[in-house]
Amino acid sequence: MRRQFLEHAKAVARFAPVRPAVKAGLRAALAFFVPTVVGTALHLPGALWLAVGGFNTSFVDKGGSYHARFRAMGGTALAAAVSAVLGGLAGMHPALAIPATLLWVTAWSFAGIHGAAANLTGNIAATTFVIALGLPASTALGALESGLAVLGGSAWAMVLSLVLWPIRPYRPARKAVAACFDVVAGYAEGLSRTVQGAREDAWQALIQEQHGRIRETLELARTTLAATRQGRGERGRGERLLVLLECADAMFMGLIALGEQLESLGPPVSGPVGDPRAAVAVALLDCANTARDLVRLVEQEGRSRRPQPEWDGRALRDSLADLDARGLLTRLERARLSDIARLLTEMRERADVALDTACRLAGPFTQAPPPARELAEESPPSLMDPVRAHLTLDSEVLRHALRVGVTTTAAVYIASVFRPNHGYWVTITVLTIMQPYTGPTFLKALQRVLGTVVGGLLAIAVASWLQDPYAMMGLLFCTAALCVSLIPLNYGLFTVFATLTFVLLAEMGSGDWTLAPVRIVNTLIGGALALAGTFFLWQRSEEERFPAQLADALRADREFFDVLARAWQRGGPPDTAALNEARRKLGLATINAETSFQRLLNEPRWRTEAVEPLMTLLAFTRRFAAVCTLLASRHSVPSTPAVLEALSRYARAMDGSMEDLADAVLHHRRPKPLPAFDALIGWNVPTPDEAGAALGSEAPLLQSQLERLARQLSVLHTAATRRMEALPVTPSQTQPSTINGP
């Protein structure tokens, strides 16, 4: 616990490597202070609620398509308005406040089943409700006026975000697609550096650093583009952006395959002079420059001349021919280098398609663009399907909703009994701190408490020397802008300036300049309640969740390989749609497992599982996928009966081994021994059988790649075994598995 506390203390002061959201901060400050000033000047009864509606609705605007932003902000405005009315009415009748809080807060916390945007809306609705409870209306008409004031402030925030800022419907999609080419360029540059003699472990570091980030960027662009195109009948800019997105995805896959093949080259094949990898490094740098050109063209909508890249696989082929003429290459080395030249040529073809499309991005639509996989415009899913799926205590969302509902109700009860000054600050702290997982809750509690203490001390200092209302309003505008601008950097900094803003605002409104200690005490009470609710109400440790996430990633690896195996049985290339779907599923499953692992590291636990085997399992889950991507880049495989028999036996053994490995990780047992993959494909064995020998003679490169895949599986198997050696043995782990071996 002491070590975990020190790690969380470091995380409190850790800054994210991003820029402050200055534009969002200024917009939030305007959304907050314009209603405040107008309401105060006109002596409107709901001035506070105008400001609350404006600030919260502006806070919801996270970017993306304008259609999605309008839905998110409009939905939040309605939810907050209804919450203000119901909270005001419930506050008039203390007997109703407790059950109403339990039902309303639990219901809105459960809204997280519909995604991150719904989760944020639910949190704002619940927060508005508890504020209304703490500031109850005197009459039903007063409660209705509060709701209307929230709608008024929200309407101003929506006008500010969606009207006063220029409306360019495809700008969010263009920026998202341009970001895809930007991360692809960074990956190409990393490969170029690594192939020129970096340490051997640099390949693994590059995969861990880049693959997950690029997949997340591609998925974000896919979601943004789908939301932008929803309901639009045009087939111009949206179609071209779709083509560009598919080109970026294809270039990413090409770079994965290229990196895997380059790593397999090992040390220089011809000494320091004439190493063909120098030509590859130059081509990769030129590829990165082409991707940067695409970033510029997409962001500017093709207002520049089309670049004419000169890189492809020709320089490598020339170097390869020279080495071959001098007899410096083995058959396998020649095959690997030829395959690298092929991959470079195919990437150049994809880049040409992207450049042509980007240069026509803003022009009239005269003909169909190059073919691309269409984004499915499905009908919206039923709102009740996720509800039915999560109505079980096994659902993390339901457990979290119940936990938040019960803890917030306890905070409301404490406030009703002891009646502390500004008691709703306690309940707001509970709602803000509590997260679905223990680690993030613990971290956010530290940030919230420490930030409130610092912000409160600053408020005391400011109130002691500055009480001029005009100067104070100017200062509060700056602190409100700062608090929102700094959210991406550090939540603790946001809390510092949010505390300073709202304490000074409350002191101005009440004339009581001693509210800072009240805010600190109420935050401490709320933080203690939030941690108690997290630790004692239906808590499930990340140690219990992580094995299922890791097993899902391993099974996604198995499904990816299964697409290749089915293609080998047919004697043709893999089905493109199935391959793309399996690859995306694998990328998302791996991201989920890595996120769960990070939560595991940040979770305060009494017992700590060995970390190194888990890190190896995660790392080589991606390495296994990289080799599969290289195999998927092959246009065909030899179709002789002996080769097909070798591939069939290899595929059956690999499928069974991966399923057994996933099951072993999930159920905390030792995996079964691996079959002899070398014998199945005739790799480095003295007397291979007929099928293995045929594979080695007819397709040495394929044989080498299959052996590489088997090595990745061996590392996964060894890591899973080491994990079991580090865990205490329980009776359930000694039970035999019901999963059939390979």
TrEMBL record:
Residues 77-240 form the Integral membrane protein YccS N-terminal domain. Residues 411-532 form the Integral membrane bound transporter domain. Keywords: Cell membrane, Membrane, Transmembrane, Transmembrane helix. The chain crosses the membrane at residues 29-52, 72-90, 102-135, 147-165, 449-467, 473-506, 518-538. It is a multi-pass membrane protein. It is found in: Cell membrane. The keyword Transmembrane applies. Its main location: membrane. GO terms for cellular component: plasma membrane. It holds the Pfam family FUSC-like. Belongs to the YccS/YhfK family. This is FUSC family protein. It comes from Corallococcus aberystwythensis.
